[in-house]
Specification:
- By secondary structure, the chain is of the alpha/beta class.
- The protein contains seven helices and five strands, in the order E-H-E-H-H-E-H-H-E-H-E-H.
- The chain has helices spanning 15-28, 43-47, 59-65, 90-97, 106-111, 131-139, 151-167; strands at 2-6, 33-37, 82-84, 120-124, 142-144.
- It is globular, with a radius of gyration of 15 Å.
- 42% of the residues are buried.
Length: 168
């Protein structure tokens, strides 16, 4: 599978919209797609028609409690792709991840057993350069950075590119 993180520490630039629409577009071309909602706001989860309050397990359980990723996966009614949902609980994961062994590689390690089932894995990152984003960047082949055409967006882009380079 090709793993693509959609990241930018700035909110409101289209990360979630890009992820959900790219997942649906790739699925429409008969690609097997996994969308991972790594944002505690869980907008990608809700945008796929999945109630974030009604799921038994989320990506948070994968990162913190070693629940197998395969046990978390949902198939939304629309879109033709697979979803690893998120919830507000992921906010606490940031603090707890710091104390976990291999904290930067928890997502990469969880992805490994299911990669063969997909052609593409898209990761919707939170609007921050935190441990969740570091996990996404450590697990990805490519980073897609949506941004607004303005000066301050370029400032943030430099910080993100520096982080990507350090992780590489």
């Amino acid at each position: 599978a090709t793993v693509i993180a959609v990241a930018n520490q700035k909110g409101g630039v289209g990360k979630t919209t890009t992820c959900v629409n790219l997942a649906a577009s790739l699925a429409a071309t008969q690609r097997r797609v996994l969308l991972i909602d790594l944002d505690p706001q869980a907008n990608a989860t809700m945008g796929c028609g999945v109630d974030k309050n009604a799921v038994d397990y989320t990506i948070c359980d994968v990162l913190l409690d070693d629940v197998p990723l395969a046990d978390v996966l949902q198939t939304p009614a629309e879109g033709g792709f697979t979803l690893a949902p998120s919830s507000q609980e992921l906010t606490a994961a940031e603090v707890e991840l710091v104390q976990k062994p291999d904290r930067e590689y928890r997502l990469r390690n969880a992805l490994h057993p299911v990669l063969g089932r997909f052609d593409y894995v898209l990761i919707d990152c939170p609007p921050a350069l935190n441990m969740l984003t570091v996990n996404a960047l450590a697990a990805t082949d490519y980073v897609l950075i949506p941004m607004q055409c303005e000066y301050f967006a370029l400032e943030g882009l430099s910080a993100l590119l520096n982080t990507v380079e350090k992780i590489r």
